[in-house]
Amino acid sequence: MEISINAAILCPLPFPKSNTARWKPFKAPSLRFRFLRKNGDANGLFRAHSKLEVEDHDNAEMPQENFKESDFESEVKHNHIWQLFKEAQQNILYLNNQRLLAVEELNRANQEKQLLLDRIEQLEAEKRAGVGKDKQSLCCELLLRIDSMVLTGMINTAEASNLRKAVMDYKISVADISLDNVQKSDAELLSELRHFSYGSKKSGFHIIHICTEMAPVVEVGSLASYVTGLSCALLRAGHLVEVILPKYACLNLSEIQGLREIEAESYSYFDGQLHGNKIWTGVVNGIGVTFIQPLYYSSFFNREKVYGYSDDFERFSYFSRASLDYITKSGKQPDVLHIHNWETAIVGPLFWDIFVKQGLGDTRILLTCHGFDSQCLEQPDKLALCGLDPSRLHRPDRLQDNAKTHLVNILKVGCIFSELSDFEVDNLKAVVWNATRNSVQVLTSIRIMYFHCFIFMGSKMPSANRALESLQKALQGENMRFMNKYDEALSHLIIAGSDIILCQSFHDPLLQMPLKALKYGAAPIAVASNENRFRPVADHDQEATKFSQFISSTFGNMSLSEALNEIKYNPSKWKQSMVTSMAMDFSWDAECCDIHVSAYTVLKSL
Predict the structure, then answer these.
(1) Are 522 and 577 contained in the same domain?
(2) Do residue 433 and residue 567 come from a single domain?
(3) In the listed set 309, 342, 375, which residue is the last one of a domain according to the structure?
(4) Is residue 380 part of a domain?
(5) Cβ-count burial of 234 within 10 angstroms (0-12 exposed, 13-18 middle, 19+ buried)?
(6) CATH code of the domain in which 494 resides
(7) How far apart are CA 208 and CA 356, in angstroms?
(8) Which residues pair with 338 in a beta bridge?
(9) What is the model's pTM?
(10) Residues of the chain with pLDDT under 50
(11) What secondary structure, in 3-state letters, does 204-256 show?
């Protein structure tokens, strides 16, 4: 019997990379099998109805040589089969290799995709960080980076001064400076800055605030909003403003853009030795801010509160000295150093006794006092901690206190008045008793006409709170509410909901109550009738501010009783006065900024 088998085996080709051949069947060679058949079958293995094509020969007996030929063909068949198996195995191995290569390529593609997504996320984060960064903000960041280059020794103070002038003189053209440039390394950024051309100096001032508070990174009292409000207004007016602060542990870091540590340390003199400081820089509301962090005296500002410790004099005299050391080492030459309250008032004697000869001959000092509640009376020998000579300063014409002559007074700049004296308390009692006879709201957070109510809120000053407690006892049982602590948010609600705000003075430098009252549509009315005693000594018509003139002509001569009658009997006129008041612009960008620029101009001419 002969059996012919035509076999076809599919042989897969490699995965096509482009337009290559498709899969094709691999056709094996035809095989011819011969079997001996006896009794119509071959040992029962095959039947006549087999699907195989069978050739049956008439001869019942096969010659011997046919057996030999059959063995040869069997061996050939065996070899062919094994060859096919080998080829199939090779194809399988090839497919496996291709599959592994495809998996590796897929993994690489996924990694590249992830890297791309990460980069996109980074760029979006940088974009978000750059939102609101105007030309002035970028200018401030560049100036802070120049400070870093000086402290790390990349450039000297002379080149730093030239680079600062280049940035300051052309800050209107800082559109050429992108966020990418600011994020470069110091070496790359230095190369970019050296391409600036130098021009004529513009008329703007370079002001550095040395202070202990700044909104919104660290806020305790009115100083914080004052520094930020004034600085932003000066920036918008074309001046360059910087701020130096201690690096408190309680800083609100989320409000600081691009906070970075300068690699090199800055050293300052204290208690007879040089001590290292870490210098941090960042931008707050578009203002370049430098933070000083003592290393040896690390506990000075690593505390829960800003003020109220027995070593406050040591803490802030260290900070004041470190600020001046940093300014001179970085090669800054500001027009004005603006210092605030007693905490940085010691910058004055330090400047004139030590630093004025260290390249700051053209710099002037402006001190602003935001409250005279604390004069910081100290033993004279403590002045030596920051390098001052106690014997030269403990004199009647310098820092010796007039009342306690054995002590020095860091704020020996003017007269001191009580925030709320017995005289004002007596006036308040009379005002309240008189007003309770009138059915109208005075100080309340709910606008209900023909209902009288007084609200008194405490202060951050202990003396005012003690006076308020005395007033509360005297007026017990009246329609009023006392809160013996200060709450900033609640104070805004009270002003917004009131018709009248009783002011101790129209020239209140601390809380600026008259300004706030006008903006919220409440009338500022003086508690005392002799308001003139609060006015400055040099208060002449030609020197009066627009605010003073407006207050004087609108509410200055009006008593509380007269204001109550105006509300009750002439409401339309009262309403028009309030509308006019709210439309007036007494913001930092208006007269407030102009007054400070005038002060800086006078200082520079001295």
Answers:
(1) yes
(2) yes
(3) 375
(4) no
(5) buried
(6) 3.40.50
(7) 15
(8) 209, 366
(9) 0.62
(10) 1-60, 131-132, 171-175, 197-201, 414-421, 423, 439-452, 530-542
(11) CCEEEEECCCECCCECCCHHHHHHHHHHHHHHHCCCEEEEEEECCCCCCHHHC
